[in-house]
Each structure stands twice: as structure tokens, then as C-alpha cells.
Amino acid sequence: MTIWTDLAHNLGEILSYTPGSPMLFSSGLFWGLFLLFLPLYSLLRDRRRQMIVFVVLFSFYFYYRCSGWFVLLLGATSLFDWSLSRLMRRCTSAAGRKACVAASLVASLGVLCYFKYANFFLWNWAALVGNNFEPLELILPVGISFYTFQSISYIIDVYKGRVEPTRTWLEYAFFLSFFPALVAGPIVRADYFLPQIHNSRHATRSEVYTGLWLIILGVVKKAILADYLAQYNDLIFNSPGAYSGFETAMGIIGYTMQIYCDFSGYSDMAIGLALIMGFKLAQNFNFPYKSQNLTEFWRRWHISLSSWLRDYVYIPLGGNRHGTFRTYLNNFLTMLIGGLWHGAGWKFIFWGAMHGAGLAVHKASLPWLGRLGDSWPVKAISWFITITVVMLLWVFFRADTFGDAVTLISHAAADFSPSYLVPFAAARTLWLIMLLLIVVAHALPVNFWNRLGDMFVRSPWLVKLLIFLVVVQCVVELQEQDVSPFIYFQF
């Protein structure tokens, strides 16, 4: 009896929420549960109602393992917004429909602001009036920014007639809580995703293998490249000014590559998991460090967020319909909101504001840039300026404080000496190799990666198995004892 009691106790500990240890796509526990989930899901795929119930239950459990009892908040949000969408559908007056939208926005943004921004606003108010500040004991629900934006877009799309409200709460809960995209995106749009729920089509063999390829790519990016690069990057960012200018500069470059691999790796895994299940999520990254200007960068980086901001912030502000100055101002305000979405801090506001200013500068420079032509020296200089701006702004994104970011940048510039290269390469050989691999990956044509994916899909199952085992072995060899959380989990 003791054996069964101990077994039940251990199983309960494994399956229950542990604060500070969310269930990650790169963890063995998730893959064990997913392998148990997949056969039953396949059996239910043709039974739409049972399939929806099963996936919603699994998605809610997944969120519970990520954020504990905040799963109740997710459930309440989905029920409230679904009820408002149904009420809006029956409402005949324009005022009533607008009231439904207003109620949804107040509720969704109110909850988001309370958990994410309350302490930030209270701290600034206390500093303004000279009072002592006692922070509220708040824990940020994982992924609240992502599913809040999905909820807002759904309500607005229903109001504008772009989508019909779902017939049942379960269908809407399926959309809002779909576990591959729940905690770190891509941000799912209702008009793109909801029609897929009613499609009982199973994933084809090609889609399953393409999904597996994306998952393997995601694991390589996150669990091998990003996590290994992070070990050195954290040393630099946790001790601003303690290392030489060259080492600091390498940490800045390293974080630039780390955040790309971390976030795009998560997106690859999310898209791959959904594809195996027969659902398609939109592309979220398209080699952003190839960009030759900031406008292009935001068409390639976190595409689901940048397109959301365009459609639900930039265009409602007026877009480019009210003259040159308003266009620049709308770009600036949109990116300011995007910066604040990422975090409650002046460094995030500055990060968004500088990207907004950069977008305005680029648009203002277009007539002059057009006269320069499209030669390779012009492209090279444009790329260098763009990647430099992006890297420097990532410092504000990563540093603990605004002051730390300034210290890191100024130290890297004032104390930089190429003489550190040889000893650095000797001490950090594998780190440099991984950094260069990411650079080369961006330098290769996109068609190369498409052909590589096609080769994997067409390869024999034994080749797929060997590739998978090699990747797993690399993860085991290089990973630290604790699985590092995804950077965007905090948003």
C-alpha cells in the first residue's frame, strides 16, 4: 500500500503546478504528456464536439501547469468575452454594440493593467508626489498579454462583422486557450483560426513531418543555441561594467542572437505542434536580421504582434490617411504601445519609442534613399546601420534597469579593444561557433532552408529518427541542470 501511496504522491507532484517551474515545450514532461495526448486526439478528430472538449481540457491543464490557479482567470475571460460577443450579435442598436465592445476592452485591459502595470504606475506616482512606495504583491499570469490581445481582436472583429461569434463557449475557449500558442504566441487571429475548428481534416503525412521538422528546428534554436548563449550573456548583463569593453560588446551581440533563437524557436515549436494536430498558425519570424531598415525588420520580427498593432492600433489611429506628420506620429505611438506591451518599465517604453522614431526616420528618408540606388554597398551599409540600432536597443530590453543599459553600451564603446579577440576565442570557442552558426543561417538564402525542410520530409523514417536522437543528445550534453524558461513567458 505504501508503494501505491508513494507513487500517487510522486505523480501528483509531477502533474501539479510548481511555482517558478512552468511546463515548457522544451521539457521532457511536456513531450511525455503530448505523446499521451496525441493518440486520443487522433481518435477524436472526426468527432468535433468531443475533440473540442478534449483539447480545451488539455489546454486548460497546460495553462494550469504554467500559471497555477490563474487558469480560472483565463476561463473567466473567455466566458465573459464570449457572452458579450453573443449579446452583440443579438443587439440591434449601434450604441448597444459599442457598449459591448467597451465593456470587453475595459475588462480585458483592466485585468492586464492591474497585474502588469499597477506597481509601475504606483511607483511613478509615489516618486512624483514624494511618498514611500510599497509594491503590491502581484504575480503576472503567464501569457496574459498574448491571450488578452487575441480576446480584444475577436471582440473588435465581431463588432466590425469580420467574423461571426462562435456558437458555443467551448469553440471560443478552444480558440483562446489553444495550447501551442497560448503562453507565448504566435498571436492567433479569429478570422484565420476559427474556420479551422470546423474542419475535421486530419493532418497529412507531409504536414506531420513538416511539423516535426519545425519542432526539431525550434528545439535546436531554443534548447541548444539560445540556452547556451545565455550562459555567457547573463554574466555580462548581470554585472554591467565588470568586464572589458570587448567582452561586453560580445555579450550584446550574443543577446541579440539569443532572443531571436529563443522566441523564434518557441514559435517554430508552436507552429509545428499545431500542424501535427491539423491546424495552421501564421508565420511569426522571417529571418529578421536580414533586414535593411526598421520597417522591414518589423515585417519580419514577431509578425503576429506587428500585424496586430498595425490593424488594431496604427490604422484606428489614422494610419497614413491624415498627412505626413500624423503618419509619423501614429507610427511612433503604435511602437510606444508595443514597447509598453512588452513590459512595465521605462526601458521598455524607451525601446518602443526608439523603434517608433526609427520607423518615422526611415519613412522620412525614403525619397533620399531612393536616389542612392540599390547597389550592394548601399544594401550593406543599410543592413549594418539597421542591425546596429536593433542590437543597441536590445540592451535596454534585456538590462535590469535603464541605467544598466546605458552603462553596458558606454562601456562597450569606451573600452573596446580587438586585442581581446584571440584570448576570448580560446576561452569561448563553442560559444563563438554557435554565434557564427546563427549568422550563417541568416546569410543563407531562404530557399536553402525550404529545400532542407523538404529533404527532411521526404527522407526515410530512420534518417528522421537519427536526426531527432542527435538533437536530443546535443540538448542533454549542453543544457544546464534547470530548463531555462522562454524569454517571452514574462509577457
Summarize the structure.
The protein is mainly α and 491 residues long. 74% of the residues lie in helices and 0% in strands. α10 (245-276) crosses α15 (376-398) and α10 packs across α16 (402-414).
Protein architecture, described:
This protein has 491 residues and is mainly alpha-helical. It is 74% helix and 0% strand. The chain has 20 helices and no strands. Helix 4 runs parallel beside helix 6 and helix 5 runs antiparallel to helix 6 (144-160). The relative contact order is 0.10.
Question: Would you spell out the secondary-structure blueprint of this structure?
Answer:
Elements: H1 2-15, H2 28-44, H3 48-67, H4 71-90, H5 94-129, H6 144-160, H7 169-177, H8 190-197, H9 205-238, H10 245-276, H11 294-300, H12 303-317, H13 324-342, H14 346-370, H15 376-398, H16 402-414, H17 421-427, H18 429-443, H19 446-458, H20 461-478
Element-level helix/strand string: HHHHHHHHHHHHHHHHHHHH
- Helix content, binned percent: over 70%
Largest sheet: none
**Extended strand count:** 0
State mean pLDDT (0 to 100 scale).
88
Shape: globular
How many helices? Answer: 20
Determine the structural class based on helices, strands and strand pairing. Answer: mainly alpha
Question: Which features characterize this protein?
Answer:
mainly alpha; 74% helix; 0% strand
